[in-house]
């Protein structure tokens, strides 16, 4: 098997390892990007791999064959096998985008990061919400604001109602990463609680003088994906699904005459920044490929993925503690290992 790949000057050969619901979407987007050639897909279920390959005009291959053909791959498989597969890809000289969370344990994530650095390869973590146009707009605004607090809600029933899922690792991890990227920091302390079945959780994360409150739910019967930012200058509402941002500025209370009747009203200035809407996955994969072609640091680094994993492991442990193992507490040392579980695609 070849261990070196020369970047194409025209189209970058890409592949997908694991073509379930999320992996199949990666195959679709790679097949659509103008500077990318979908060179093949692979999956432990060969029938699924052949179906996806036929749909997007490529080949179903073995892992070894795929790595021979590709310069970049997406690894979209259950978390507990991330380490083995990502390591195999990096050792073959192939750049990797690995779906979130980066690995089953922090130590595995660190080893993966070290190997990528040693080989001079790009390892990007698939925190897709970073590439939501609404989130990117807020990122451009945040440096101008004196932020007091952030509130994130990621609610709604699963697409597959039979899938157990753990909302901390499946859903809340997105908002943990977004908050960390917006504040460019890691939390000083975390408190959390949730239900025993792992379908509902809340967490409070303190960053010096800023507080972030996160809620994730699989029992709420309405799909909600929102982020609110309270700053001294304004209040910002972000809707991930609508890809919209509303900025509420100075509020003016006053009494007015309405046909002889005194009436109280409260007016505020609402700004709607222009947002170039688009598919976050397309932005994510285009950014990944561009990082590889330029040999630049990816938008979401392995360290970003490790920090998000540390935080969600702590939150998950605190939720478990609240269920009676030990008393829940504020935690700042986030070195915990998570249970081995398959993490649902976002």
UniProtKB/TrEMBL annotation:
SUPFAM superfamilies: Glyceraldehyde-3-phosphate dehydrogenase-like, C-terminal domain (SSF55347), NAD(P)-binding Rossmann-fold domains (SSF51735). Pfam families: GFO_IDH_MocA, GFO_IDH_MocA_C3. Residues 318-346 are annotated as: Disordered. One of its GO terms (molecular function) is nucleotide binding. InterPro entries: Gfo/Idh/MocA-like_OxRdtase_N, Gfo/Idh/MocA_Oxidoreductases, GFO_IDH_MocA-like_dom, NAD(P)-bd_dom_sf. Residues 160-227 form the GFO/IDH/MocA-like oxidoreductase domain. Signal peptide: none annotated. It comes from the Archaea. Residues 332-346 have a biased composition (Basic and acidic residues). Residues 15-127 form the Gfo/Idh/MocA-like oxidoreductase N-terminal domain. This is Oxidoreductase. It comes from Natronolimnobius baerhuensis.
């Amino acid at each position: 098997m070849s261990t070196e790949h020369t970047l194409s000057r025209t189209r970058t050969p890409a592949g997908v390892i694991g073509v379930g619901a999320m992996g199949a979407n990666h195959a679709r987007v790679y097949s659509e990007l103008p500077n990318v050639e979908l060179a093949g897909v692979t999956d432990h279920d060969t029938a699924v791999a052949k179906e996806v390959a036929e749909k997007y005009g490529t080949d179903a291959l073995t892992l070894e064959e795929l790595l021979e053909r590709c310069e970049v791959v997406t690894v979209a498989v259950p978390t507990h096998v991330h380490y083995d597969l990502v390591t195999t890809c990096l050792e073959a000289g192939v750049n990797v985008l690995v779906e979130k969370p980066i690995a089953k344990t922090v130590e595995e994530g660190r080893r993966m990061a070290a190997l990528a650095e040693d080989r001079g390869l790009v390892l990007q973590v698939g925190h897709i919400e970073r590439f939501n146009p609404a989130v990117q707009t807020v990122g451009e605004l945040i440096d101008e604001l004196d932020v007091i607090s952030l509130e994130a809600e990621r609610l709604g029933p699963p697409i597959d109602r039979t899938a157990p899922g753990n909302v901390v690792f499946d859903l809340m991890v997105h908002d943990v990463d977004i908050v960390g990227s917006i504040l460019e920091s890691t939390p000083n302390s975390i408190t959390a609680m949730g239900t025993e079945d792992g379908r509902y959780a809340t967490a409070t994360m303190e960053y010096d003088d800023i507080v972030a409150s996160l809620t994730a739910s699989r029992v709420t019967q309405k799909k909600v994906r929102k982020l609110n930012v309270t700053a001294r200058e304004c209040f910002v509402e972000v809707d991930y699904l609508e890809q919209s941002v509303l900025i509420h500025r100075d509020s003016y209370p006053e009494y007015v005459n309405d046909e002889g009747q005194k009436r109280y009203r409260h007016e505020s200035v609402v700004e709607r920044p222009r947002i170039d809407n688009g598919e976050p996955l397309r932005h994510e994969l285009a950014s990944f490929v561009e990082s590889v072609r330029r040999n630049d640091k990816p938008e979401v680094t392995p360290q970003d993925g490790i920090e998000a994993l540390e935080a969600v492991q702590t939150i998950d442990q605190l939720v478990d503690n609240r269920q009676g193992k030990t008393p829940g507490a504020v935690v700042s040392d986030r070195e915990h290992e998570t249970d081995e579980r398959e993490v649902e695609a976002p």
